[in-house]
Task: structure prediction
Amino acid sequence: MSDRVEAVKKLFTSKSSRVETNKGDTYYQDLFEKCEARLNEMRAQTPANKLDFTDLLEENGIDRREFMKWASATTAMLMLPPMFTPLVADAAVMMNRAPVIWLELQDCAGNSEALLRADGPKIDEIVLDIISLEFHETLQAASGHQAEKQLEEAMEHFKGKYLLFVEGAIPMGMDGQYGTIGIKGETFHDHLVRCAENAAAVIAVGSCATFGGIPAAAPNPTGAVGVMDVIKNKPLINIPACPANPANMVGVILHYVLTGQVPELDSLLRPKFAFGYRIHDNCERRAHFDAGEYVEEWGDTGAQNNFCLYKMGCKGPMTFNNCSIVRYNEAVNWPIGVGRGCIGCSEPDFWDKYAYERPMADAKIKAPTGGVEKTVDEFGLGMLTAAGIGIAIHAAASAVAGKRENSGESHE
Amino acid sequence: MERSYKQVKRMTPAMRIIHWVNAICMIGAIATGLYIGHPYYQTLIADGAVDKYVMAWNRYGHFIIAIIFDVTSVIIAYLYFFSRFEKPYKKLIPNAQNISEFKAVLINLLTLNRKKEFDSSHADSFNTVYFTIFHILLIWMLLTGLQMYVHGLGSGISSIGAWWPWMLHLVTDWTIPVTGGTLMDVRIAHHITMWLIVCWVVFHIYYQIWRTIFWKEGDISIVISGTKFVKE
Ligand code: HEM
Ligand code: SF4
Ligand code: SF4
Result:
């Protein structure tokens, strides 16, 4: 009962998407001092790896000016006032003191791929390069017993301090036997629970780890769920999207290194600095939406003129993510920019409920009776037809009955 | 046999105005709502995107209609309890009298007017229940509609102050888990409920005409002149 009261309370108190961009001077002054003290403390620690950020920047031909530009953009992205810029820059340099363990579960490794992109790493990727990645199944050289040992050691050494990144869903069907790992055949579920035990915080990256994503799409053969359905007693941050934007991963780690806290989250545990914005409200095609100018089919005049993709199934109006602002690949472009609609990749159940590339009104949905799939409008017209037939029968019967009654009366 | 008829008052002018405002709004809500869901006509204005607002006008119209619906809903809710004319809530209480009247009216409909064992001079319990269903559907549209609307106020501020999105979240966020857990489910629910309302309207119109034809008491006139006739 108290559970239910809590759930109802939560329903009416959680702010689903509201962003608080200004918390007042005293708050930021306080935070600034805390962050400064924290960074000083960290500077004294020996880095967990020998990669030097400044060297790496130089190697990749990124000068100080460019780096500071990045730092101030990142500060703004984290919704901190400009005075935090030097601290953010410092924190980036000290990222090699943030121990990270990365788990790979039921997924396509797309998020690892996103942060490893090869074409000349940009600052976001360099930051992710120097984090002290203690364990990452896909990237490390070690395998088998060796890998197992490395994981044990990392968890022991950084007990209570490491950030656990999780990529991929957790199959719960058949006692979790759909996915096992290592020589002992540990299920993904047990593996995750064991690694989360001593983590400082758990960060689910990508739509699969956050909400089950593609593995959890109907009919969900493996009973896949997201990390938040398994790990309940840890600070948990969801960074959904398919793939998660490296800028947001960096944002979360930086925020953690800088403040020692998880950033403010929305009701789906997504950091508000990244998921407090609706695609549709920051989309460059919005003027065409309001004007009623839509792409009707791929490659038509509308498409050539960058018209709105709403009729091609763009789900920007119901999707919260910052890709319309920070874009992908260091702000080169983003899905709508290249001329295809948003498929709502950062929302729960996106594969079933958003990604059908036509307006919802035309999409096949499961009829309440199960099995048959209908579009909402076909279903509605079906109901209307049924009502119409009922009425027609009633009307005809009434007319016949009425006539009989009348003729009966005339015989009187 | 000549029968004499007596004229009885059934709807006050205020009630009739509300009825027709609702009817017009309904047509408008459906026309604009369907456009929002799937823009079904092309914009044929040779202007730049900056100064034509076809979708924006449709959305604007939809919201204005929504506001009118809200206001009339509040008035109707008030009248349900405090009307000086007839208080409809009295017909909703499931007491023996209302239940038997409800059954009698339903039997009248199903037996094609062979049996008519209730007093048709005043509002009956069957219709009152039927109208109440409509108002509940409308409130549901209001809540799901406002939930979709508040998506656009992600910043937490609005031209009339921060209380507005705050209040909308407070009042409508529960529709997300109730409809299935995602923002899209709210939209699907809003769209399907529209079809339920359309079905409701079709039967409503049919039934009122049917009553007029078979009862021979001029029921259709209630909503125009406010009165009908019953046999003395
Ligand atoms: C009473 C208060 C109502 C409110 C506040 C409301 C609000 C809204 C909003 C905000 C949208 C989404 C627009 C967008 O995303 O830009 C919408 C869509 C829609 N509304 Fe309403 N509405 C209301 C009543 C109705 C009624 C009475 C009907 C019809 C009977 C209706 C039919 C529709 C339809 C068909 C859509 C399109 C849904 C889709 O396919 O995406 N609405 N409404
Ligand atoms: S392309 Fe999508 S996000 Fe952009 S305005 Fe159109 S519907 Fe909105
Ligand atoms: S446009 Fe939509 S589907 Fe594409 S990355 Fe952004 S949120 Fe995901």
Q: What stands out?
A: Chain B has a mean pLDDT of 88. Residues A 279-280, 283, 285-286, 289, 308-310, 314, 316-317, 336, 341-342 surround iron/sulfur cluster (ligand 2) (CB under 6 Å). The radius of gyration of chain B is 21 Å. Strands of chain B lie at 5-9, 227-231.
